[in-house]
Amino acid sequence: RKEVEQDPGPFNVPEGATVAFNCTYSNSASQSFFWYRQDCRKEPKLLMSVYSSGNEDGRFTAQLNRASQYISLLIRDSKLSDSATYLCVVRGGGFKTIFGAGTRLFVKA
Amino acid sequence: DTGVSQNPRHKITKRGQNVTFRCDPISEHNRLYWYRQTLGQGPEFLTYFQNEAQLEKSRLLSDRFSAERPKGSFSTLEIQRTEQGDSAMYLCASSFTSGPRVNEQFFGPGTRLTVL
């Protein structure tokens, strides 16, 4: 079993749609959680950290369920510019950072 | 541009040759990470430095791989006796040690290695 697993995708949605990505992790001792975005042929960039209480940044909402070892990302009112690969990222007590394989999102006009 | 830089951007080599990549992190960052990414996968952690100390290494980092950060600034990643399976994008990232952005890793553009 992979340490971090994500929906395989791709997700194809129209502009304005709401889309949700799911991620599970295997190490119950994991302490930090993030969503990164990676555009085609570009480097990953931090989208948002994920906090236990859940957090929101504009159209983006991240949630964490430690009991189920589950992380989610919700994107509301999708824009064409949201088209990218979304990477779920987990870090344990050390510095090893585990990335999921990513879920590709295509937003169409 | 004060972001993370990596050189070279592309490297084509023959199997069995040695290659070395360089990463220059953001100057204020003490933490430096190396990752490897293949098509359709997320970045795979290779190793981590805090200043000049290599504090963590992945089991992916076989004895053919070595990384250094001699003065706590730039870092090099060397692959000896390259194999075709080493073909990948090698990404470097850096981050602060403390402060509000301590968890944000800033990635460089990567070095794409092709082993023929």
Structure description:
The complex is a heterodimer of chains A (109) and B (116). In chain A, strands 2, 4, 5, 9, 10 and 11 form a six-stranded mixed sheet that branches. Chain A has strands spanning 4-6, 11-14, 19-25, 32-38, 45-50, 55-57, 60-65, 70-75, 84-91, 97-99, 103-108. Chain A has 109 residues and is mostly beta strands. The mean pLDDT of chain A is 94. Chain A starts with a strand and ends with a strand. Chain A is built from no helices and eleven strands. Chain B has 116 residues and is mainly beta. Chain B contains no helices and eleven strands. Chain B has strands at 5-7, 10-13, 19-24, 31-37, 44-50, 53-57, 65-68, 75-79, 88-95, 106-107, 111-115. In chain B, the strands form two sheets. In chain B, strands 2, 4, 5, 6, 9, 10 and 11 form a seven-stranded mixed sheet that branches. A four-stranded antiparallel sheet of chain B has the order 1-3-8-7, with no helix packed on it. The radius of gyration of chain B is 14 Å and the shape is globular. Chain B starts with a strand and ends with a strand. Chains A and B meet through strand 5, strand 9 and strand 10 of A and strand 4 and strand 5 of B.
